């Protein structure tokens, strides 16, 4: 079969499965998630042996240790996948909810019913556990899924796919509810993102390069997560203890995450007081510091920041620091250099927090809280498929709701329209 | 200036204006809408004389009378535009609303704030009053607008643009809040739809050809309105009086609208009783009928329907009719041949209406109501910018809310994240 025929078949099967999934009951979907967990449990030896092939190939290809670590499936990670499935089963089912049903002057009632998007294509890189994360969220929200994992995780993903299919079928759901592509041909990605007749939305998970490439070429809407160049602004009226705790937490809780602070903005009136303490604490943690001239006048430890630094998501123990003369300068800086992901203000001034919240154009705006909270779990969604930096459809952490749409439903009793 | 520099300038100006519009107060935006209404009133002679140039050019180019009629600006239409501005001013402002603000286990409060999308590009065909419709809805929802009208309406649109700018500036809003392109170069459209740095969403308004072309080439999200191939399904348990009223209203209220019924599906058990009456009534209205073999056995008036007919949005006094053996066949037919716009069931059976509502994959699903109700005004939105046949972002009639996004806001009091 040609690649094109194969992809067409996958697409048709997904579309057909999506019709059945859309009307599957919550009970059936949860049964499938539990059956998937059982199937993973039973497939444990096979998952580990297939993963070993990927690990071997990866070593032979000379993948670096970080990548190899992400690729590894061991008992703990399999436990994590099984736990994840059970967690998604425990989430409330968003599908079918009817909201805002109101009587209108014509006598009809009009409301909105939450429905699945249909078919979701997920393109991801090395971590094989994404296969389960993504499949479970899509299934719970009544969507069919087409998964395309990285070629390095090929054998692991195929083994996971087998287990997933067993679980889905055991619960009486369509076998094509979750399909993992069995090709590593790069052209398959190009086809997947240009089949609007079969695929309703693409979720790329991976590095910025992957996401930009896919967004550029996609002929299907993309829920994309680009970079997280997050800021904390410490106002002149900040409580400096809170400011210290938040600035430390936002930067040093974890370095490689998208909600980590990459740029610290400090009001000139607070800088003399708080910056030396922060600089010392960052130094202790081994965080490299670069900054504007004013900040360097306060601490000689701070290196020189280039224009490029303000745009940069380091994802590393490195921070850029800028002194600003007022909140407006901070907001302008954030909206210009930031990536519209997550930005925080620390201030005790009511009016300023109110204005900051309104004017900062980011998917999450924090007031007196660490940027680290920008996360589907922390927001109470139970799980997330990513954090959208788009404004269209879903913005910010995307949980089950982001994988749904709302259609209008109208109830009449023989109503017709006059004019 | 080259076209590229011109478009870049327009884009930059729109982006800058959008920042100011996002924080404009409701009062300011409403003042601008009223000032735009005044400016249109004052520009009445100029609007009519500029429109006369377009009409003359149109006649010289041999535009047909329907197109010329849509192009015409007379006193009644100017009144309509002025009335429309005042109506949009009277709508509640969606911007700034914070919803679902809840305390989470970590102690933070998390909610969603409704914000403008940013810059909206509108591409439309001949009717110059769209300039005002679109500009007013975008402005009220805090968005900057770039409008590109049809070349036939060039002089009319420029005259409207002048009045709009006067109103906007009079209210102290940025002069580039609403920009109408002053070029008829087709390449400008291509540029407008591929400037994601300046344009957040494109709304094409016009024929299917225009919309398909733009969707295909856009590098920016598109809120699109493709065709409305709408169905009414008359169940075996329908109240036949209601069914008759709805089937007549859905087809004959207006023929050229997207929410008109184009295909009638009748349960075999109801067909003998209701079809002859409907056929007679349609004939009286001059509606051409084509149908399946079974329907033709009931009425010889019905011509033969081709496979193509089931896919066709006639937008004309023509209807395709199919007899189905049960509701499932109707739903399968609708989901296959329909355009996911608006579809209705007429039935007194509770379980069937419940299933139909869930399983029909359309932007509006009607129960015992005419498809004619699918409309932003009828749904209580006050106005609409179009009807989206997409599932992503906005689905169905798009009012002010469809021109907004929601960002997360988090309130803490020095909160940091532990793990």
TrEMBL record, chains A, B:
Domain of life: Bacteria
GO CC entries: cytoplasm
Subcellular location: Cytoplasm
Class of the enzyme per the UniProt entry, highest EC level: oxidoreductase
Metabolic or biological pathway, per its Swiss-Prot or TrEMBL entry: Amino-acid biosynthesis; L-proline biosynthesis; L-glutamate 5-semialdehyde from L-glutamate: step 2/2
Molecular function terms from GO: glutamate-5-semialdehyde dehydrogenase activity; NADP binding
Catalytic activity, as annotated: L-glutamate 5-semialdehyde + phosphate + NADP(+) = L-glutamyl 5-phosphate + NADPH + H(+)
Example GO BP: L-proline biosynthetic process
Keywords: Amino-acid biosynthesis, Cytoplasm, NADP, Oxidoreductase, Proline biosynthesis
Residues annotated as domain Aldehyde dehydrogenase: 8-285
Statement: the UniProt record of this protein carries the keyword rRNA-binding: no
EC number(s) given by UniProt: 1.2.1.41
Record-stated family: Belongs to the gamma-glutamyl phosphate reductase family.
Free-text function comment from the UniProt entry: Catalyzes the NADPH-dependent reduction of L-glutamate 5-phosphate into L-glutamate 5-semialdehyde and phosphate. The product spontaneously undergoes cyclization to form 1-pyrroline-5-carboxylate.
Annotated protein name in UniProt: Gamma-glutamyl phosphate reductase
Gene: proA
